[in-house]
Amino acid sequence: MSNPALVVRDLTKSYAGRPVVDRLSMEAHAGQVTAVLGPNGAGKTTTIECCEGLRTPDSGEIRVLGTDPAAEASAARARVGVMLQDGGLPSGARALEVLTHVSTMYARPRSVDDLVDRLGLAGFAGTTVRRLSGGQRQRLALAIAVVGRPELVFLDEPSAGLDPQSRRAVWDLVRELRDTGVAIVLTTHLMDEAENLADHVYVVDHGSVVAEGTTEQLLAGREQTIRVETSTGLDVASAASLLSQDTGSDWNAVEESPGVYLLHGEVTPAALLATTTWLVQADALAHRISTGQRTLEDVFLELTGRTLR
Amino acid sequence: MTTSTPAPASRRIFAQATFETRAILRNGEQLLVTIILPAIVLVGLVATDVVSMDTGGLSRVDYVTPGVLALAVMATAFTSQAIATAFDRRNGVLRLLATTPLGRGGLVAGKVLGVLAVEVVQVLVLATTALLLGWSPDPSGLLPALVAVLLGTAAFTALALLIAGTMRAEGVLAVANLVLILLALGGGVIIPADHLPGALGPIVSALPSGALAEAMSAALVDGTFALGSLAILALWAAALSVLTARTFRWQ
Asked: Across the interface, which of A77, A82, A151 has its CB nearest the CB of B1?
């Protein structure tokens, strides 16, 4: 594989003595979507802003397309596109005007008309930024991030607040960029975004990488889930032993939140029967039973003992 | 895939200056403070005798116009720029532009050029109005007036960025307007420093507002360089620039 588009080694950054990013290391490659997945406050945005040259790391090394982002070279900045979480759009200017303005900073920008078309900006091209909805601002900010034909794009929570249709347009554009060889780094706290878009996922919590790999690697293993919604306070140990005994394979069980139980093991018809047996013994009525594959949400829960939100 | 390259620096800065100028000239409140307020002061002081003035034998328009031009420079370089930058900073605009090929240096250069462009518009409007009111400036004062405007712009733009880069946007909105009014009334702009009572005169002469007004007056009334006032302005510009560069927070 060619040199990584982004290399972060042992990045550390504290605010007022409180570490926000703690010895974080990651890489991103051309032609791949790399997702930094974690709950709010995990240090995702700080990490990305260090890579964008907007914050100075306390320690560690960052190489963006082979150069130090703190060097402030315009030639290097032209090769990197940025979408900030708060948009960074001037409130008094019109949407199309801002996009056109940023495009003039590049020698060979993408066609503004094409981006307007792709991201559905035409309907609000002449509207001032302060009157745009959150979703409209997000799409405009994405257009601005890619108008300079960057080789590496940083997208901070690109589909936060988007309606399903806009989100699909954003995802399609991200995939198209990837297919043309662009390296894309996005932060998200949305499982489905990471699962649908990312080639490589870094799961981040408390400023450190707690797991990494392809989505397949992270979700690997035959382990599956039976999810039961019923009364609170049932004995999870008895569920695990009953299912293990009746199916002949290993099961474990947790009460994820009051009245919601996750049973992990190889899901078979016998396992489902054992689950209802457990409920009968506990004299509990299930409101809902569902079976499913492990999700990144489960992975995160297992790694940190917490849910993502 | 071809490597993306930035547009030439001159084009980036020119584009930013144009963008900033349009933003200011299109904003109602900004127009009010930069164009309409100085124009009202000019016409109000010249065409009415609501305010009695000791003009030292000059016509009212000759006496008042240099100060009004100084006021216009302060309104654009300081008040308008402080407010615009503070809100751009709060909205993350400064951070986003810093990640484009424009960069932080290009952003500051674009802002300064934008201020100068708005000042050109102001001078056209105010000078035309003054000429219609009978203004007869000393033609040899053009160069010294230009030097005074440039130094005043440097000092007041640095002051604008100093408060915009350290205070909350709402605070900047209040302070930038209040300081303009205080300097206009008591800072040697409309009433010359040497007409102020007691020890106030020398103090006000040393303020950037007083120094700018005195330099403009010396240029346009007498056609001379007020070297002392110009030196004071240059010192303010240098000191405020250093302070701003050290304290400015981009977010």
From this structure: A151
